[in-house]
Design a protein that fits this description.
It contains 31 helices and 6 strands. Pfam families: Dymeclin.
Length: 695
């Protein structure tokens, strides 16, 4: 190591590391040793294979560390060295701090590596033992002193240090661990992000994630000291502010670590040619930059913007755990405000440029973790929701979400579900439902079902939601997904305008497809039990009855959506009227059905009114072309009165988070951390991703 770039093969024989993990105590003020240990450069693992390779070469050293540290206290000495260097950084100039940043980073990298090893092979209890361990002679002395003190101290941890023939028990107060957490937060929120500090910020965020990952391995049943310490929340607002700023600014990783390409410094392992691959650029049209799949963008985001990526994941971890208690990080995210506003004092956790947050989310919303952050902000932060609703370029946000749904076979079910919920939340705003039909899009290359030269944002939104319903019917058969799709369409239906002919066709075809399925299923149920109709022995009549019930609910909702549009926007939707006239026969089998007849009466009244007008014109002119039929419909619409129709309640649906949301979100968040994060954990060591730990 020393001033040379470390090679993984050399790690086991490195004299500095051997001394550190050995049986000899190394004092924190032994400058010669710490300078020797911390003056190294290392290639940071970029993927799970790199991490596995590094872990295998560190295994022997880590085992020696576990066996000796409780007696030597060398980990505590390293923590002290790190704390001193982190404190000194706050008062140094840029020129003075370059070398200091390097050594602070190196100390923190070793600390994180050891935390990760203890998490994967031990327990939270053992992790805290190593944080607080003192040299053995001091252990006995400290134990005698503490026996004379009061035994009740918050965050106390019982550790046992075994020597050859004696056992000394020590109650420690966790002070060093708390001080370490404070130091990490200070590095993140106080030190400005510059080229030579970028990796120190990244390592600080990664260390917090690694500490919180105790949830993956230990699954503690008692109160987690790690979580309780991090959630003490003295710095919740400033930490959440810093993390969200890291995401919004999306600073690209420097080409070199610590701002130097001179001999002896580490050049970050990204070829220059690769830097041009990343497609996130503000000046580019989002339709042209969104050819990459969400999976590809996730990898690019992690590679080129690791600080933003890791900060985003840490935000999700902090806000989704401990939701049953007062979670100051969650409160902070939901209480932030636009820095351009002047909100009342005491009501705002922190201020940030909402424009920057919005623009960044538009660029990366096809990534799972970005969709999840967008959901949290829209659902829980009223200020941000109102800000988004005021934007004139909503297509930049909505189109990537629609692409995620369009590429459903390439997306995971959680991502599809969250994307639909975001659309549902957006559709709760009447202004949004009106605006999407005024935004015109041209030549949407990614939509391949049909070439459409021009369509409104509302039109393409309807097409994608309908397609998602049909995909769900064939593949996923998820009732909640159906419900959210239909709820979004229902919210929008009273504002449908200028529907493209193809959109009108797909709306009616959705009913037609569902109607055929209903007829087929109903016929099967009426057949004798021993009939050949039941060729699938795994499908029971009870299952089919349940399917029929769900299908009738969906059919009813589609009819109500059509009725809502005709009641509120008939004059602006001639293409829908045209399609209903052309496809009037699809409703015949349902006119007498008790579940549908009241709504179909309205549709029949509209169809009857325009049919009679067309018949009169045809008697005068003869056969009419499409444009002539539309002309008749438009003239008739001006004389139509919706008062003729039976009144139904307005369709208004609001997303409500289910009870115990952590059962969905916590496993999802940790899956994203493991799949898309820069910290690679041993999959063999992960016990399970359960709902929560006590805080």
């Amino acid at each position: 190591m020393g001033i040379n770039v470390s090679r993984n093969a050399d790690l086991a024989s490195n004299e500095w590391l051997q001394r550190f993990v050995g049986r000899q105590h190394i004092a924190h003020d032994d400058e010669a040793f710490w300078n020797g240990l911390l003056n190294y450069n290392i290639v940071i693992p970029e993927n799970s294979q790199d991490q596995l390779s590094l872990d295998s070469r560190l295994e022997t050293l880590c085992q020696s560390f576990i066996g000796n540290n409780l007696k030597t206290g060398n980990f505590g000495s390293l923590i002290t060295v790190f704390l001193e260097k982190a404190t000194e950084l706050l008062s140094l100039s840029d020129q003075e701090s370059n070398m200091h940043v390097w050594q602070t980073f190196n100390a923190l990298f070793i600390i994180r590596t050891l935390i990760k090893y203890i998490n994967e092979t031990g327990s939270e209890f053992q992790l805290l033992q190593h944080f607080e361990a003192l040299p053995s002679a001091d252990l006995v002395k400290a134990a005698e002193e503490q026996q004379q003190q009061q035994q009740q101290q918050m965050a106390s941890i019982a550790i046992e240090a075994t020597e050859q023939a004696t056992l000394a028990a020590l109650i420690v107060d966790g002070a060093k661990f708390e001080t370490f957490i404070d130091a990490l937060v200070n590095l993140i929120v106080v030190i400005p992000v510059k080229e030579f500090t970028y990796h120190l910020h990244l390592e600080s965020v990664n260390t917090l994630i690694t500490l919180l990952a105790v949830h993956l391995f230990a699954q503690p049943t008692d109160k987690s000291i790690v979580f309780r310490t991090i959630y003490k929340c003295q710095h919740a607002n400033v930490l959440m502010s810093a993390l969200l700023h890291f995401v919004a600014r999306m600073v690209e990783v420097p080409h070199t670590m610590f701002g130097s390409t001179s001999a002896g410094s580490f050049v970050f392992g990204i070829a220059e040619s690769l830097l041009s691959i990343f497609t996130f650029r503000k000046q580019q049209d989002i339709l042209k930059t969104s050819n990459a799949t969400g999976e590809e963008l996730s990898q690019q985001f992690r590679t080129h913007y690791p600080l933003a990526n890791q900060s985003l994941l840490l935000i999700l971890i902090l806000t989704n755990h401990c939701t049953a208690q007062d979670n100051a990080y969650r409160t902070s995210l939901f209480g932030c405000a636009d820095s351009k506003d002047s909100p009342k004092q005491g009501t705002v956790s922190f201020q940030i440029d909402f424009s920057a947050v919005y623009e960044t989310l538009c660029r990366i919303v096809t990534i799972d973790q970005a969709t999840l952050l967008l959901y949290l902000l829209l659902h829980r932060n009223e200020r941000f929701y109102r800000f988004v609703m005021q934007q004139q370029d909503l297509e930049l946000l909505v189109i990537p979400i629609l692409q995620t749904l369009y590429n459903a076979p390439d997306s995971n079910s959680h991502h599809i579900y969250m994307s639909l919920i975001v659309l549902l939340i957006l559709s709760e705003d009447e202004g949004f439902n009106k605006n999407v039909h005024t935004i015109l899009l041209k030549n949407i290359s990614w939509y391949t079902e049909r070439t459409i030269s021009e369509i409104s944002l509302g039109g393409i939104l309807i097409l994608i939601v309908i397609r998602t319903i049909q995909y769900n019917m064939l593949k996923m058969r998820d009732k909640y997904l159906h419900t959210n799709c239909l709820a979004a369409l229902a919210n929008m239906s009273g504002h449908f305008r200028a529907l493209h002919p193809y959109v009108a066709q797909r709306l009616v075809s959705l009913f037609e497809t569902l109607a055929r399925k209903h007829t087929r299923l109903d016929a099967q149920l009426k057949e004798p039990a021993d009939s050949a109709v039941f060729v699938n022995v795994s499908t029971t009549p009870e299952d089919m009855m349940q399917d029929l019930s769900v299908l009738e609910e969906v059919l009813r909702m589609v009819l109500e959506i059509l009725n809502s549009c005709l009641t509120n926007q008939l004059v602006y939707c001639p293409n829908l009227v045209y399609t209903l006239l052309y496809k009037r026969s699809v409703f015949e089998g349902f006119r007498s059905h008790h579940a549908f007849q009241d709504v179909i009466q309205n549709i029949d009244m509209v169809v009857g009114f325009f049919s009679s007008r067309l018949q009169r014109v045809q008697e005068q002119r003869g056969e009419l072309g499409v444009s002539e039929v539309l002309e008749v419909i438009s003239k008739g619409a001006s004389q139509w009165s919706s008062d003729r129709l039976r009144k139904f309640p307005d369709l208004k649906f609001k997303y409500v988070e289910e009870d115990a949301p952590e059962e969905f979100f916590i496993p999802y968040v940790w899956t994203l951390v493991c799949k898309y994060g820069c910290v690679h954990f041993s999959s063999e060591s992960i016990k399970s991703v359960t709902t929560d730990v006590a805080c």
